[in-house]
Amino acid sequence: ISYGVLGTNGMKDNILQCVTGTAVVVSKALLLCHFIFAFIIIINPVNQTLEGLLNFPNKMGVRRCLMRGAVMLGIISTGLAVPEFSKILDLVGGSTVTLMSFIMPPLCYLRLCSLSRLDGLPMRVLRSGEKVLLVLIMLVGVTGGVAATWSALQEILSPGAFTTTCFSRTTFLV
């Protein structure tokens, strides 16, 4: 739809950079809220694991704040050091997200349906059409995942892929 409305000329990777209006502002605000809350949910287990490995007490303290601050500093430094993070996201999306979305659910479902009860009868009998559909979904996932991962790796490994970092720029783009 985006290409149909805006055309291919001037189309950017992020569609929100190509359109304007109140809906875009609201979308950006909602995305920001999502990122903030999702980040807290994702980073908390990492912090708690590190605190457990370092035998920090399970209460608020200076060491705990310093460790969490160091983790944040590392995350921010990594984000600034990688000039085009979209290339890394393409690699992750092409490999792990495809595996998690297209390959593992049908595979696990097929495996669970192949289990038998204690009396030896199958727990669930899949029709051949269902099996074919699940295998086709996995094949589409494998094909798309391999193609996307290969494309992302080619982009990352191409000469000049990461020529500059945010540390070498004079201005920061927001």
From TrEMBL:
Protein name: Amino acid transporter transmembrane domain-containing protein
Domain of life of the native organism: Eukaryota
Organism: Cherax quadricarinatus (Australian red claw crayfish)
Keywords for the protein's UniProt record, in alphabetical order: Membrane, Transmembrane, Transmembrane helix
A Pfam family it matches: Aa_trans
GO CC annotations, alphabetized: vacuolar membrane
Protein topology in the membrane: Multi-pass membrane protein
Domain Amino acid transporter transmembrane: 9-147
Localisation per UniProt entry: Membrane
Entry's Gene Ontology molecular function annotations: L-amino acid transmembrane transporter activity
Membrane spanning residue stretches: 20-44, 88-112, 132-153
